[in-house]
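Please fill in the sequence for the structure shown.

STRUCTURE ENCODING:
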C-alpha cells in the first residue's frame, strides 16, 4: 500500500509512518514542521520506501500530486495541545478547518480513502461517561478559547462525514483520547511529557487545578495499531470511532506514578487554572471513552498499562531506546527488523 501521512513528522504521525514502513508499505509524509520535528523522522530518512516533503497543505498542487501517488490518506496534520489552542486560537481554527477541507477536496477527486484524526476534546464538558460516539457534544461558550479546538474538529468531522454521505468518499473519523508516548513534546501543554521532564530535572511537578480531574492515557503504539486495523477492516468507513484506553487515572495519581517511576525528588505543586492557562479556563473533570465500537470493528483495544507507558516516556527523555512493552510493540519491532534485513528499512 502507498500511504500519505499529513503531519507525518508529528508525534502520532511519525509512529504511524514507522509502523507502515515496518509492514512494507510505501510512506509519503507531508508536514510543515509547525509543531512536528525533523528529529521525529530522522531514523526513517534512509529508508527507500520513505518519502518526505516539508510543506503546507495549502500548496494545493503538491497535495494533489501526493494524494494521486497514494492509496490512502492519513490526515493527522492539525494544531493540537491546549496551550497552543489557548495562545493561538486563529492558527488552531484555520489550520484544522482549512487543512481538512483541502485534504478532503483533493482525495475526493481521486476517491482515495481518508483517515481523519479527530479528538476526544469534541465531547467537551459532557459528564455522560463513558463517551459513546453518538453521544451529544457539550461545548462551552465561544468566548472561551479552549472550545475553539473542539469546534474546529467537530466541523472537520461534519465535513468528512458529509463527503462520505454526499460524494461517496470513503472517510473514517477517529477520536483520539490522550495519546501519549515517546516523542510527544510538552511544549504545547501536554501533561505527561511535562511531568516527566519536571520529574527528571528535579523541578516541581505542576498539577493544574485540584488534580482530581481524570484522563485515560493510551500508548501511541496502541493508537497506531488501532489506526491500521480501522483502515484495514473496511468496516469503519463513514463511521466515527473512539481510539484510546479506558484505564482512568486522576492527574494527581499520574503525578505520583511519574515521580515514583522516575525516582524523582521533585515536589508536587498545585497551580490554579487561570495561572496555568488564562482567566476563566474551563477543564473537564472526567474523560473516558467507550471502546465498544473500536473493539467490535478491530477486535483490539489498547492495553499498555500506565506504568509501562510512563516508563517509555521516561526512557525517551533520558535518551534511551524506547522500551518494548507490549505485544503490539514487539510485533512492530519484529516486522521492522524483517523488512530492514530484507532490503533496507530502518528499525524503530
Ligand atoms: N495538566 C497538568 N499539568 C500540566 C499540564 C496539564 O495538571 O503540566 C492537566 C490539564 O489541566 C488537564 C490534564 O492535565 O486537566 C490533561 O492535560 P493535557 O493538556 O495533556 O490534555 P487534555 O486532556 O487537557 O486535552
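FILLED IN BY: designer on duty
SEQUENCE:
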Amino acid at each position: 500500500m502507498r500511504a500519505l501521512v499529513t503531519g507525518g513528522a508529528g508525534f502520532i504521525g511519525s509512529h504511524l509512518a514507522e509502523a507502515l514502513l515496518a509492514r512494507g508499505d510505501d510512506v509519503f509524509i507531508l508536514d510543515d514542521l509547525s509543531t512536528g520535528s525533523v528529529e521525529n523522522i530522522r531514523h526513517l530518512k534512509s529508508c527507500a520506501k520513505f518519502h518526505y516533503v516539508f510543506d503546507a497543505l495549502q500548496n494545493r498542487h503538491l497535495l494533489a500530486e501526493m494524494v494521486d501517488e497514494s492509496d490512502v490518506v492519513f490526515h493527522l496534520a492539525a494544531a493540537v495541545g491546549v496551550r497552543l489552542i489557548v495562545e493561538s486560537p486563529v492558527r488552531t481554527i484555520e489550520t484544522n478547518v482549512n487543512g481538512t477541507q483541502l485534504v478532503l477536496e483533493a482525495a475526493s477527486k481521486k476517491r482515495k480513502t481518508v483517515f481523519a484524526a479527530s479528538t476526544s476534546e469534541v465531547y467537551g464538558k459532557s459528564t455522560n461517561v463513558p463517551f459513546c460516539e453518538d453521544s451529544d457534544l457539550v461545548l462551552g461558550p465561544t468566548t472561551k478559547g479552549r472550545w475553539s479546538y473542539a469546534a474546529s474538529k467537530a466541523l472537520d468531522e461534519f465535513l468528512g462525514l458529509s463527503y462520505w454521505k454526499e460524494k461517496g468518499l470513503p472517510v473514517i473519523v477517529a477520536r483520539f483520547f490522550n495519546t501519549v508516548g515517546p516523542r510527544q513534546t510538552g511544549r504545547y501543554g501536554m501533561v505527561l511529557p511535562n511531568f516527566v521532564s519536571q520529574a527528571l530535572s528535579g523541578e516541581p511537578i505542576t498539577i493544574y487545578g485540584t488534580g482530581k480531574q481524570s484522563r485515560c492515557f493510551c500508548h501511541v503504539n496502541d493508537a497506531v495499531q488501532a489506526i491500521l486495523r480501522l483502515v484495514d477492516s473496511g468496516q469503519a468507513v463513514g463511521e466515527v470511532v473512539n481510539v484510546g484506553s479506558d484505564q482512568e487515572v486522576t492527574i494527581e495519581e499520574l503525578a505520583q506514578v511519574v515521580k515514583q517511576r522516575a525516582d524523582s525528588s521533585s515536589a508536587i505543586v498545585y497551580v490554579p487554572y487561570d495561572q496555568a492557562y488564562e482567566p476563566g479556563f474551563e477543564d473537564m473533570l472526567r474523560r473516558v471513552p467507550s471502546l465498544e465500537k473500536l473493539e467490535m470493528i478491530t477486535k483490539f483495544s489498547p492495553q499498555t498499562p500506565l506504568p509501562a507507558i510512563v516508563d517509555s516516556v521516561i526512557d525517551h527523555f533520558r535518551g534511551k531506546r524506547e522500551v518494548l512493552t507490549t505485544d503490539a510493540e514487539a510485533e512492530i519491532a519484529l516486522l521492522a527488523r524483517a523488512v530492514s534485513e530484507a532490503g533496507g528499512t530502518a528499525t524503530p
